[in-house]
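Allow me, if you will, to draw on your knowledge of protein folds for a short while. I am sending you one protein, given as its amino acid sequence and as whole-number tokens for its backbone shapes. Kindly check, if you would, that the fold set down in the tokens agrees with what the sequence suggests. The record follows directly beneath this note:
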Amino acid sequence: MDFEVNYDVAVIGGGIAGVAAALQAARSGKKTVLVEKTILLGGLATSGLVYIYLPLCDGNGHQVTFGICEELIRKSIQYGPGDIPETWKQGKNAREEERFRCIFSPAAFMLALDEVVQNAGIDIWFDTLVCDAVVEGTRLTGAVVENESGRGILHAKRFVDASGSSILARRAGVPCLEADNYLSIWAIEYRKDANAEGQNLGKNVAVCACGAWANGETSMSDRELQRAGLTREQLRSAPYRGISGRKVSEFVLHTRNCLREHFLTAYESGKYDRKSNYALKLPVMPQFRKISCIQGEYVLRDNEHATFFEDSVGLLADWRKPGFVWEVPYRTLYPANRLGGLLAAGRCSAAAGDAWEVTRVIPSAAMTGQVAGLAAALSIDERVEPPDLNVAHLQKELRGLGFPLHLADVGL
């Protein structure tokens, strides 16, 4: 190894979950490092161009998610366009766009995230890949990483896997869950006379979404699919399950094939040409939504909205439909095999089926990231492993940070 370094808390993944976890760990007085494989913070929300900060409220006037999650939604529009609806508190079965949410400029949000992380005194390791895990007995004690300095070991008292793919947990041998991914791509395009109202992208700029959606529907014609090397059945069957180097490459190429056919069809129609309609910005990471999450001591599952959990550490609103609010058990943030030293956040926290649709988005990433960062710090102070942390103490600290923990706390 070319180097070995030591930290109190190491957060793997610089997406929204990782940023929130690192912020809370650092604010709790821990020497913290944030490891990101690209040179951009924000993950799928920014470099992935999924630029909608989904609702923090239930659509009926009740804010349910607070803390760093609320801090970051306001940061997302600090250096760029975007508005939170002023009337969201008056909502009754409100549509998503009428709720406590906003659309932001991905690049502007990146700048704000850089600022907030640097101000917190967090060490940022960009362009750094996690290659392996160091497990000693029943504890995770290190992450093998590689960057321009070579390959080395990053030691920490606690690790938070916020990678979106459970990369550190998988390398450490933690059992993980997988799910299907539909084949789709979001990109930003120039389109003459585009109506970008509500998208905050400016005149003649729009979001281009191609491929298939969760229900198997597609915006593409049979001819476009054929030229892209795809079939309608392939889109419906969601063939991208699990993760491998080959699957990442295939997914990226297939989605970009879809995008290319989108432009070719526009040119062939005669309505546009290469000067009036073209790609401006492509995502720089694969837009998988659900890759791999830990098999937690508890796995959040379908139809568990409005369910009371004694060890709840926060609330999440369902972004797709008003009135559905979920309590999130602390047990979803550590593995069922109780490997010491490890917590999970964001898309890596334990969920399955429809529940994973709720836990994979920005508000969940920010909320579970903050909880994981706090739990990491408290478990160090109390000299216990994360599964053995006094949950009542964790909940008390969360309440002090403004967290409602149960539906009754917000009048539901």
Notes: Residues 79 and 182 are 32 Å apart (CA to CA). The first strand starts at residue 3 and ends at 12.
